[in-house]
Amino acid sequence: DAHLETAKDVLRRKFLVGLTSEMAESWRRFRSHFGWEESTNPDAESCMKTMTESGGGVNRNDRNRGIERGSAEWDAVASVNAFDVRLYEYTVELFRSGT
Predict the structure, then answer these.
(1) What's the Cα-to-Cα distance from 43 to each of 27, 48, 49, 50, rounded to whole Å?
(2) What global pTM score does this model have?
(3) Residues 48-57: contacts with CB within 8 Å, 24+ apart?
(4) Which residue of 34, 40, 52, 89 pairs with 23 in a disulfide if CB–CB is 3.0 to 4.6 A?
(5) Measured between alpha carbons, how far is 54 from 52 in angstroms, rounded to an integer?
(6) pLDDT, mean over the chain
(7) Which pLDDT band holds residue 4 (cuts at 50, 70, 90)?
(8) Which of 9-23, 31-45, 66-80 is modeled with the greatest confidence?
(9) Which residues contact 16 (CB under 8 A, 6 or more apart)?
(10) DSSP string across 45-91
């Protein structure tokens, strides 16, 4: 548990987090944080729109479908990766809080 708390502290203090499920907002935050300006190239902006709005580059591996939170499969993976799951949930909290 001490390692998890250390990881959460490092994540909070040293990382700017984004979520693939919130790609447009993540990209907006990255641009703001790093001072990246919007491109004047229409192809670049079209590409960015595709990536952020329609999920370009998102993992579409069909093998991941059908595993529902709370199912036996989910619980088996979550128990083996309990600290990873807790760290991910904390990352989502950080994102939602805007930090």
Answers:
(1) 17, 9, 10, 11
(2) 0.73
(3) 51/23, 51/27, 52/23, 52/24, 52/27, 53/23, 53/24, 55/23
(4) 52
(5) 6
(6) 85
(7) very high
(8) 9-23
(9) 29, 30, 33
(10) HHHHHHHHHS-TT----GGGTT--TTSHHHHHHHHHTHHHHHHHHHH
